[in-house]
């Protein structure tokens, strides 16, 4: 066979996907394809998600999340070194994550952001059950039709900050594990127990059996569908087991859900403001819950 044909055949041969520490230089590389799918929000693999940027990767490492692989480009090398991962090979013998390198151009091809920072990871998160949400004195945040992923991620962040025991995404809510939601959570998604898909009627029944009070957030004006008392946040006993239901940004909670609540909470607002977005409202109520629970715990400690 002529040498020119041999060279053409060599160029057509697909890149070996696990070629030691050699950089990944082809869009057809299976690892780059996996990163691209995961960073777009659809890895096609159970519980496998893509995260991007040094902060999220660092938070995943700090949280003990199971990182399967890390991808870095030249512009991300400084972040890789800062995380102490620059010396890891692509096929480590231990349980440490595999580290792959690629070009800035190919990284931009697989990235899910407009201005990629050259560092991404594949992380496999554990699956939680309802029982994980109601440990101790439950404070569960239930998202019902919250479709903005930024709001979902912010609520997960607030849930961790104010001591909630878990978050449930139900009724067409955006996934807390979507790329935008994970970025908005600033790493809390790796630590807060989350049930990403739940049917509202089944969930409400489970909460009642577990002895958890169901609290609906009210839109303004007060919902006519509510048969439960309408309270301001400071007048509700948050130190009890509670599930806080947060509705969509545009429509609030469905009437059927409001009717099923044990209480309805409305945040008083100054005119002319008529409503708060879902993340702000949830954060205000979670702060009040944390304040009451902290004061109650301090009182118990000081009691003789």
Low-confidence segments, ≥5 residues, pLDDT <50? Answer: 1-20
* Helical amount: 25-40%
Strand/helix succession: HHEHEHEHEHEHEHEHEEEHEH
CATH class bucket of the largest domain: Alpha Beta
Mean pLDDT: 86
Number of domains: 2
What's the helix and strand layout?
Elements: H1 3-12, H2 30-39, E1 48-52, H3 54-62, E2 66-72, H4 77-82, E3 98-101, H5 104-110, E4 119-124, H6 130-133, E5 139-144, H7 149-161, E6 166-170, H8 179-185, E7 194-198, H9 200-209, E8 213-217, E9 230-231, E10 242-246, H10 255-259, E11 263-265, H11 278-302
Parallel strand pairs: 2-3, 5-6, 5-10, 6-7, 8-10, 8-11, 9-11
Antiparallel strand pairs: 1-4, 2-4
Labels describing this entry:
304 residues; alpha/beta; 60s Ribosomal Protein L30, Chain: A; Alpha/beta knot; seven-stranded parallel beta sheet; four-stranded mixed beta sheet; 11 strands; disordered N terminus
